[in-house]
């Protein structure tokens, strides 16, 4: 139906034993959107926030019949254990071979039935990004085998004993965040661009002195017909040039919790609206390395990881 519903296993109502209650037999829970979203055709936010393994709170809208749960919010926390395979109240993506998983075609972008236990059907952060001047970025993805070899098997949670709050929101005040030494900010600061730009002023052809000619684009010859400038004055204008070295400034990231409002996507996109006093920033980052960042004093940095 594509209206944001999720299957939920409810504490106190459902057993964690999947032999008794398989995931596919769990009830669908409706999403309760905030008042800031219209939830109407073509208007409002998409109700697609929770991921596999997300803890939610809610209520039964049909009361004691308990067949129509509604989710009203998600619960952050500090995970202590990785997901257990074939156990309820855990990310179920690797549980059984007969589970229908989503897949996306690399050519058409259309979804279909994926290989049940192949994790490449699901989004994940890049393994590495290679940026070469004058060409598109090369993004290397983790293989299914590499993802399953992680301690978390790339299921949720992906890390233990650290808050589920984004490390970019936790900032440098949290020693576990490593926001400036590992991840997107570190990648940006290790790959600063440095370019030399030569600008030359070429006066209008209308200023070419009468009796002289220049060779323009594609070898076309243009002859002067006016006497606005002497030959020496025209030559002096044409010789004006400037050489500048353009250096990409490092990220101005210096977030302090709880002032940085962060959204991270599953595949590695990042949006920040940082209200940290004196370090206010706006930052839009694409997983390929392309980004736009507004620094505290209004400096805007744009980088495109392509042609």
TrEMBL record:
Domain Protein Gp5 N-terminal OB-fold: 18-93
InterPro entries: Gp5_OB_N
Descriptive protein name: Protein Gp5 N-terminal OB-fold domain-containing protein
Organism lineage string: unclassified sequences, metagenomes, ecological metagenomes
């Amino acid at each position: 139906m594509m209206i944001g519903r999720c299957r939920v296993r409810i504490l106190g109502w459902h057993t964690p034993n999947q032999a008794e209650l398989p995931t596919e037999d769990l009830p669908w829970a409706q999403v309760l959107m905030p008042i800031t979203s219209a939830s109407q055709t073509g208007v409002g936010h998409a109700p697609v926030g929770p991921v596999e393994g997300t803890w939610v709170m809610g209520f039964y809208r049909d009361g004691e019949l308990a067949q129509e749960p509604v989710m009203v919010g998600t619960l952050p926390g500090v995970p202590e254990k990785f997901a257990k395979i074939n156990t309820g109240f855990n990310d179920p993506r690797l549980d059984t071979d007969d589970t229908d998983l989503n897949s996306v075609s690399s050519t058409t972008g259309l979804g279909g039935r994926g290989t049940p236990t192949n994790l490449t059907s699901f989004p994940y952060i890049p393994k590495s990004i290679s940026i070469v001047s004058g060409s598109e970025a090369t993004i290397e993805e983790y293989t299914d085998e590499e993802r399953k070899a992680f301690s978390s098997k790339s299921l949720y949670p992906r890390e233990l004993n650290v808050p589920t709050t984004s490390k970019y929101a936790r900032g440098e005040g949290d020693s576990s965040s490593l926001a400036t030494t590992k991840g997107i900010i570190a990648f940006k600061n290790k790959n600063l661009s440095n370019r030399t730009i030569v600008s030359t002023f070429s006066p209008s052809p209308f200023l070419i002195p009468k009796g002289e000619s220049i060779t323009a684009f594609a070898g076309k010859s243009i002859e002067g017909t006016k006497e606005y400038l002497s030959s020496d004055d025209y030559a002096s204008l044409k010789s004006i040039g400037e050489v500048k070295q353009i250096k990409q400034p490092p990220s101005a990231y210096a977030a302090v919790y709880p002032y940085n409002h962060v959204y991270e996507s599953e595949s590695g996109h990042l949006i920040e609206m940082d209200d940290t006093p004196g370090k206010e920033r706006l930052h839009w980052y694409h997983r390929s390395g392309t980004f736009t960042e507004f620094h505290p004093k209004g400096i805007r940095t744009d980088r495109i990881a392509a042609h």
